[in-house]
Specification:
The complex is a heterodimer of chains A (232) and B (521). Chain A is an alpha+beta fold. Chain A folds into two domains: 125 residues, Alpha-Beta Plaits, CATH 3.30.70; 58 residues, no CATH class. Chain A is 40% helix and 13% strand. Chain A is built from seven helices and five strands, in the order ββαβααβααβαα. In chain A, strands 1, 2, 3, 4 and 5 form a five-stranded antiparallel beta sheet that branches. In chain A, strand 1 and strand 2 form a beta hairpin. In chain A, helix 2 packs antiparallel against helix 3 and helix 4 crosses helix 5. The longest helix of chain A is centred in the C-terminal third of the chain and has 21 residues. The radius of gyration of chain A is 25 Å and the shape is elongated. With 521 residues, chain B is an alpha+beta fold. Helices cover 25% and strands 18% of the residues of chain B. Chain B contains 16 helices and 19 strands. In chain B, the strands form seven sheets. In chain B, strands 1, 2, 3, 4 and 7 form a five-stranded antiparallel beta sheet that branches. In chain B, strands 15-16-12-19 form a four-stranded antiparallel beta sheet. In chain B, helix 2 packs antiparallel against helix 16 and helix 10 packs across helix 11. The longest helix of chain B has 17 residues. The chains are: A alpha+beta (232), B alpha+beta (521). At the A-B interface, helix 6 of A face loops of B.
Chain lengths: 232, 521
Amino acid sequence: MANISGKAYALTILSPIKNGYTEEQIAYADIVRTSLQAWNNPGFSPMAQVPQTYLCRYFVLDDVYTESLPGADLRSLWADVLAIISNTFRISMLPKQDQLKSRYLVFSCNFYGGPTGDLDGYLRGMWNTISDQIQPIWSYCYGFEQVNNAESFVAYMKKCQLPAALFFVGSNDDPLPEQLKALYLKQEFTKFAVANQGLDAAKLRANFQEFINSVQPNNIDQPTWPAGKFTV
Amino acid sequence: MTQQLELTDIQGNVIRAYGRFGYPVARYVFFNIRDNSKAREFVGAITKRVTTAVEWGDHPGQIKQPHWTLNIAFSYQGLKELGLPRTSLVGFSPEFASGMKERKDILGDDGPSSPEYWDPIWCYNRVERDKDVHIFISINAQTGCDRDEGYRWLLNQVSFVNGAVVILGGHIGDNDEQFDYQDSHAVMENDQPTAKEHFGYIDGIGDPVFEGVPYDVDRLPGRGKQMDDGTWVPLATGEFLLGHIDEAHEYPPAPDPVLLSRNGTYMIYRKLHQNVGTFESYLEEHGQKYPGGKELLAAKFVGRWRDNGAPLVSAPDEASKDDFNARFDVANPIERDKMLSDFTYDDDMSGAKCPFSAHIRRINPRASLQMVRDETTPGAMKISEGAFDTPGALTNRRRLLRRGLPYGEVKDRLRNNGNHGIVIMMLNADINRQFEFVQQQWVNYGNDFIAGNDKEIILGNHSADDKLLSKAVLQVDPNSDEAPYILSKIPRFVETRGGEYFFIPSMTALRMIAKGIVDPT
């Protein structure tokens, strides 16, 4: 599948938001947007708790964009020439202008899917860690009332899935904990290099041993860089 | 076909870096407009004395070289006061309309470089109407006497319009005194003007060369754009002059009517204070530890040796420097100029000679951004063959003409405070694409150079925050056993003390502005 690259998986979900509004005349889609904007506030996004998430993005799609009328391509040239015969024909050649029947919640995500692209496992992990935050958002979407556990969440999300391949170039396809540990080691090693520059070999060796003991390269879980943390 | 520029229509400072043409002294004067219509008369009178780009000499079509030159430019507020129609004003770039102060986050003017610490003239600019900087006038002179003559002439013009324009004071000079002008002059050595700035480096060697400039025909290598076959050709005129085709084969965005913008350009004026004491002590401290010694370390900061400007790419160590010097000492001026500017980074893709964070590599990377990792050796980079139409494609649209001179004197090399720094004026067709990009991405960030967030060593807005300490890596040959040297806790060597964005109109545009007949319809 085009949305699997190595061990990285590009997930695109479009869930239709119900066309209603509250007593205060605020559209459901706007409530969804406001709730999601709060996830952006300083501090960790709930998505940071979802295992193996490389990067994700939420937005509310109000409508699709329409491209302007065609330029001077061969197709429209012929349509113009043949318009002497029938104007209906010319109009039929113009691109159709599509509009959405509802507004959509879009969830676009890159995660570690392993060699088999384990989407079910990722979605189960998402439900198990942040179902309390998922429900208030997705409850405004059509059909979400059938979701009440991890399995029904997985089934629902797969129905909403689009086979799009939106990859973010900025990470490799190793499991997230390994990437976070690597980032942590890189930063700590830079500090070590600065602090120990120019020492003699014996002292350097001793300090390096101490450094290795403190950063524990083989212990993937700790010490490490916490998922979702973006400031020093 | 080689482009012919209309030298009578272009202001002289756009084409000439006056310092290089025998004008080591300069004075910059700034005005606030109080009476719009009389201010246009003032602009008209000044325009008659403005130095154009016409060639100097005794040959036909050339004019006698003046003892002092005069040039003029306007801020966005100034153009508004001079009565430019709204339809013309909206055609100027948004960053020009915003002004430098508002762009501080993009430019990295934070901490000691924040606008609240700028000289009073810049601090109060765009705060109160009567303190707004509207007009910039520069006088460049062969001697101090010539400068004084030019300034007296200017004061006379001011008095003729009875307070319609007012000179703005508030330039900090010696002993924290405030002056009505910003003076600058070449740093002197043995009573001779030099091309050096206060840290001791030779400045302005790599100033770009573009199509149509008659004085620069012999100065192409290293200053134009690098081609696939190793030759150099001039950059497109439209990178530096509005109304001409640029490197994307387009006209740069410019206001209407064409006569207002054509042959004009944007100027970035910046007063940069140099912390000489910090620089000396940091160089001393690391010079003792750095395996190559203090002078090589100083050269690594910039990419050139301090004594004669020899590029590190051509003279990477003491031995090759001696060899360079032997050839340099017997070379004629044209050969010397070539030795200083004619080089590429093609044989230094891993930065072992000229570090990735050195001044000249950051400001003008030549073709060195066309690079990819060389997987055969850790830490090695190589040329990404054929990645772009021309090897310098990532650089050619980020070039800046650099004008300006040092100001003040260093009386005590152990101290930071004092009146010493550089007034730099950078000219480009697009402030955002050229100046601001270089400042944000190449000076204050390192990702394009695969150097993480390492900043340019000399100009970078290095942080004093313990959690975000600045560092820079001095690379070594990836095939050697040497360890890279890490410059840690880099302090801020240079602080912004003020500045603004200006528009330098053509002579035609100046005459139209003076008459109030700019008509975009």
